[in-house]
Amino acid sequence: MTTDIDLTIADAPCVELSALGDLPSIPLLGGAQLNAFVDFASGPPTDCKLNLNLLIQLGPLFASMACLFKILDVISKIKDFATAVPDPTKLLTAVPKLLESIAKLEGCIPALQIPNLLAMLKHILLLIINILLCFLNQIDSILKFKLTLDFDAAQGNPALLQTLTCASDSADAAMKNAMSSLQPLQALMMIIGIIGGLIGQSLELPDFSAIPNELADIEKTVAGVKSAVQGLQGIVESLPG
Q1: Are 108 and 179 part of one and the same domain?
Q2: If exposure means fewest CB atoms within 10 Å of the residue's CB, which of 9, 67, 113, 180 is most exposed?
Q3: CA-to-CA distance for 4 and 77, rounded, in angstroms?
């Protein structure tokens, strides 16, 4: 006796991983380059993780360059003053020597090479834009997830209600953590402003310290970040290179 057996195979669940794009990088002064690291230990790599990895590396870098930027700012102010001073007799020799010394200093310190500064500034702004876009995507995902939680369907089912409550609390925690990720960007904005001043770029940068991080102000936060992205994109488009 033969028995017909249904060999139909159900669709197997599959989580597709997207291929990574080009690794984000920032050209540094003097010809070096800061690159993002692919950290497989933290799970499947994503473009957002790569941009965050590069952002984390910027903190120590800027900490080591803070005094340099201050010195360069002072030098630029001295040069502006020297070129604007009238030409009295006692300055006939002092001013040319000062300008000559500054000119030699510009040739010795790679950080005073304007094209390199422009390239570094542009790539840093692009990195921050990518981080903000990741933030917006994360907030959007959390909001969509919360909309799927149907508490009405859990009436009379304590176990399901407890599960939904736990999921909602976790979503709120994820939302708050995402908003907290904006705070460290404010220190970077200050450094970027100094760099822009050194190369003659007047930058109207967003103030992330003014963006609320409370769950009740989600709409204001999202609107503020979207406005910041638009402003940064306008700055990037205005930079050469």
Answers
A1: no
A2: 9
A3: 90
101-110's contacts with Cβ under 8 Å and 24+ in sequence apart are 102/75, 102/78, 105/75, 109/72, 110/29, 110/30, 110/31
Q: How far apart are CA 195 and CA 116, in angstroms?
A: 11
- Greatest C-alpha distance within the chain: 120
HEC readout, 108-144: HCHHHCHHHHHHHHHHHHHHHHHHHHHHHHHHHHHHH
Q: Is 166 part of any domain?
A: yes
Q: Can you give the residue range of the structural domain that contains 103?
A: 67-112
Q: Do 234 and 119 reside in the same domain of the chain? A: yes
Task: Share the mean pLDDT of the chain.
Answer: 75
Hey, which residues does 35 pair with through a beta bridge?
A: 25
Torsion of CA 62, 65, 66, 68, to 10 degrees: -160
DSSP, collapsed to helix, strand or coil, labels residue 154 as: helix
Q: Provide the pLDDT for residue 9.
A: 45
User: Which residue pairs from 158-165 have beta carbons closer than 8 angstroms and sit at least 24 positions apart in sequence?
Assistant: none
pLDDT digits (tens, 9 = 90+) for 76-131: 667 666 666 666 665 666 666 666 666 665 555 555 566 777 888 888 889 888 88
* 89/167 same-domain check: no
What does the pLDDT look like over 143-176, one tens digit per residue? 888 888 888 888 888 888 888 889 888 888 888 8
- 174-223 pLDDT, tens per residue? 888 777 777 777 777 777 877 777 667 767 777 776 666 666 677 888 88
Q: What is the distance in angstroms between the CA of the first residue and the CA of the last residue of the chain?
A: 78
118 and 93 belong to one structural domain: no
